[in-house]
Design goal:
This protein has 240 residues and is α/β, with parallel strands linked by helices. The chain has seven helices and nine strands, in the order βαβββαββαβαβαβαα.
Length: 240
Amino acid sequence: MANIPTPHIGAQYGEIADTVIMAGDPLRAKFMAEHFLTEAKEFNHVRGMLGYTGYHQGHRISVMGHGMGIPSIAIYTYELYNFYGVKTIIRVGSTGSLREDLHIGDLVIAQGACTDSNYAAHFELPGTYAPIADFSLLAHAVEACERLGYRYKVGNVLSSDVFYAEDKHYDRWINMGVLAVEMEAAALYMNAARAGKRALMIGTVSDHIITGEETTAEERQTTFTKMMDVAFDIALASEK
């Protein structure tokens, strides 16, 4: 195809599976390839954004990094959906809890994604767009968490453009029932909607905005496997 390889993904058409599990940290993608896939083959290392395709319980699945923030995930998911024919993207990542009953290690399934980003503006919509997950993926994630006995909550997250903000106004988001803050889900959901594809974000609480609890970078990279269990469970269902 004329559009590939893209400026950011060096794969040929057909080297990426219909379902891709993505993580902000490319080393987390490498971890998933090593621990969840067999016969994993690298399809991308452009800009160090690692991507692999292999097999999980006999089904072909890809994993890939997407970088930090809305601009980065927007580029990679746009290319995957529109140039490589990917049908489903599941993001797994760390998130900061905005609720006292959401603790370190708990899972957050993003039903919707609020944002302080202006990303939706380029779609030139005549109003405010509400980015939401694919319901079938969300329902399967809930079923998997119940079956596996994982603590989780479903609801709205905040996809923020700013990590070091002068005033984060988290109290206002808390007042509106937002569960947690991360930096990518809104763009993922918008790109999926525009492409007519499917998307879901599953986060693991890595730090707590209210209590100040936090984890190390190494813990975030290698120990947040429950969200991966759920993501691969969903991916298997998507491929059947």
